[in-house]
Amino acid sequence: MAEPITGKNLLSADVEIKGSIKFQNELVIDGKVEGEITSAGVLTVGENAEIRGEIKTKSVTVLGKVHGNITVEERCELKGRAVLQGDLKAARLVIEDGATFVGKSEVTPVKGAIKQSEARPPAPQPAPAR
After folding, report:
1. pLDDT > 70 fraction of the chain, expressed in percent and rounded
2. pLDDT for 36-68, tens place per residue?
3. 74-82 contacts, C-beta under 8 A, 24 or more apart
4. What H or E segment, with its residue span, contains residue 59?
5. Which one of 42, 62, 71, 114 has the fewest CB atoms closer than 10 angstroms to its CB?
6. DSSP assignment of 81-127
7. Angle at 30 between CA 15 and CA 95, to 5 degrees
8. 90/71 Cα distance (integer angstroms)
9. Separation of alpha carbons 81 and 97, rounded Å
10. Parallel, antiparallel, or unpaired for β 26-29 and 8-11?
11. What pTM value is reported for the model?
Protein backbone atom coordinates (compact mmCIF):
# COMPACT_ATOMS: atom_id res chain seq x y z
CA MET A 1 0.00 0.00 0.00
CA ALA A 2 1.38 3.41 -0.97
CA GLU A 3 2.16 6.01 1.69
CA PRO A 4 0.22 9.26 1.34
CA ILE A 5 2.44 12.07 0.05
CA THR A 6 2.80 14.86 2.59
CA GLY A 7 5.00 17.90 2.94
CA LYS A 8 5.41 21.08 0.98
CA ASN A 9 4.54 21.48 -2.67
CA LEU A 10 6.48 24.15 -4.56
CA LEU A 11 5.58 26.30 -7.56
CA SER A 12 8.97 27.76 -8.47
CA ALA A 13 9.78 31.30 -9.66
CA ASP A 14 9.57 30.41 -13.39
CA VAL A 15 5.98 29.09 -13.11
CA GLU A 16 3.02 31.21 -14.25
CA ILE A 17 -0.55 30.05 -13.68
CA LYS A 18 -3.88 31.55 -14.74
CA GLY A 19 -6.78 29.82 -13.03
CA SER A 20 -7.79 28.59 -9.61
CA ILE A 21 -5.53 26.54 -7.33
CA LYS A 22 -6.73 24.12 -4.66
CA PHE A 23 -4.40 22.15 -2.38
CA GLN A 24 -4.62 20.08 0.80
CA ASN A 25 -1.57 20.46 3.06
CA GLU A 26 1.21 22.98 2.33
CA LEU A 27 2.04 24.99 -0.77
CA VAL A 28 4.89 27.41 -1.47
CA ILE A 29 4.30 29.69 -4.46
CA ASP A 30 7.33 31.56 -5.78
CA GLY A 31 5.96 32.27 -9.27
CA LYS A 32 3.06 34.26 -10.73
CA VAL A 33 -0.56 33.27 -10.14
CA GLU A 34 -3.64 34.98 -11.51
CA GLY A 35 -6.78 33.51 -9.95
CA GLU A 36 -8.23 32.21 -6.71
CA ILE A 37 -6.23 30.09 -4.26
CA THR A 38 -8.29 28.01 -1.82
CA SER A 39 -7.24 25.46 0.77
CA ALA A 40 -7.73 24.16 4.28
CA GLY A 41 -3.93 24.11 4.44
CA VAL A 42 -0.96 26.48 4.80
CA LEU A 43 0.20 28.80 2.01
CA THR A 44 3.56 30.54 1.71
CA VAL A 45 3.84 33.32 -0.86
CA GLY A 46 7.57 33.36 -1.69
CA GLU A 47 9.85 36.38 -2.21
CA ASN A 48 9.55 36.23 -6.02
CA ALA A 49 5.82 35.52 -6.04
CA GLU A 50 3.17 37.80 -7.49
CA ILE A 51 -0.40 36.77 -6.78
CA ARG A 52 -3.38 38.51 -8.40
CA GLY A 53 -6.59 37.16 -6.93
CA GLU A 54 -8.34 35.97 -3.78
CA ILE A 55 -6.55 33.83 -1.20
CA LYS A 56 -8.70 31.71 1.15
CA THR A 57 -6.66 29.33 3.31
CA LYS A 58 -6.16 28.18 6.90
CA SER A 59 -3.05 30.35 7.26
CA VAL A 60 -0.69 32.31 5.02
CA THR A 61 2.82 33.77 5.19
CA VAL A 62 3.53 36.47 2.61
CA LEU A 63 7.09 37.33 1.55
CA GLY A 64 6.22 38.52 -1.98
CA LYS A 65 3.36 40.51 -3.56
CA VAL A 66 -0.39 39.91 -3.29
CA HIS A 67 -2.93 42.02 -5.18
CA GLY A 68 -6.25 40.76 -3.87
CA ASN A 69 -8.12 39.93 -0.70
CA ILE A 70 -6.86 37.41 1.85
CA THR A 71 -9.21 35.46 4.12
CA VAL A 72 -7.62 33.01 6.57
CA GLU A 73 -9.10 30.98 9.42
CA GLU A 74 -6.03 31.30 11.62
CA ARG A 75 -2.86 33.36 11.08
CA CYS A 76 -1.68 35.81 8.43
CA GLU A 77 1.95 36.91 8.54
CA LEU A 78 3.33 39.73 6.36
CA LYS A 79 7.13 39.50 6.31
CA GLY A 80 9.54 42.43 5.96
CA ARG A 81 9.39 42.92 2.18
CA ALA A 82 5.82 41.71 1.66
CA VAL A 83 3.32 43.82 -0.27
CA LEU A 84 -0.43 43.29 0.21
CA GLN A 85 -2.89 45.42 -1.73
CA GLY A 86 -6.30 44.20 -0.68
CA ASP A 87 -8.48 43.52 2.31
CA LEU A 88 -7.59 41.02 4.99
CA LYS A 89 -9.63 38.84 7.36
CA ALA A 90 -7.81 36.70 9.91
CA ALA A 91 -7.97 35.44 13.50
CA ARG A 92 -4.37 36.60 14.09
CA LEU A 93 -2.22 39.05 12.14
CA VAL A 94 1.55 39.65 12.26
CA ILE A 95 3.05 42.51 10.26
CA GLU A 96 6.84 42.82 10.30
CA ASP A 97 8.64 46.15 9.99
CA GLY A 98 9.05 47.06 6.33
CA ALA A 99 5.93 45.25 5.05
CA THR A 100 3.47 47.23 2.91
CA PHE A 101 -0.26 46.77 3.49
CA VAL A 102 -2.82 48.86 1.63
CA GLY A 103 -6.39 47.87 2.49
CA LYS A 104 -8.72 47.12 5.37
CA SER A 105 -8.11 44.48 8.00
CA GLU A 106 -10.59 42.58 10.13
CA VAL A 107 -8.85 40.65 12.88
CA THR A 108 -11.28 38.51 14.85
CA PRO A 109 -10.02 36.03 17.46
CA VAL A 110 -11.30 32.48 17.11
CA LYS A 111 -14.90 32.13 18.30
CA GLY A 112 -14.07 29.35 20.76
CA ALA A 113 -11.55 31.58 22.55
CA ILE A 114 -14.26 33.42 24.50
CA LYS A 115 -16.24 31.49 27.09
CA GLN A 116 -20.00 31.60 26.66
CA SER A 117 -20.42 33.15 30.12
CA GLU A 118 -18.15 36.03 29.08
CA ALA A 119 -19.86 36.50 25.73
CA ARG A 120 -23.29 37.34 27.20
CA PRO A 121 -23.92 40.40 29.32
CA PRO A 122 -25.13 39.56 32.83
CA ALA A 123 -28.90 39.39 33.30
CA PRO A 124 -30.39 42.58 34.76
CA GLN A 125 -30.92 42.37 38.53
CA PRO A 126 -34.13 43.67 40.11
CA ALA A 127 -33.68 46.83 42.15
CA PRO A 128 -33.50 46.17 45.92
CA ALA A 129 -36.81 46.73 47.77
CA ARG A 130 -36.93 49.73 50.12
Report:
1. 78
2. 999 999 999 999 999 999 999 999 999 999 999
3. 74/110, 81/47, 82/45
4. strand 59-62
5. 114
6. T-EEES-EEESEEEE-TT-EEES-EEE---GGGS-HHHHSPPPPPPP
7. 155
8. 6
9. 8
10. parallel
11. 0.79
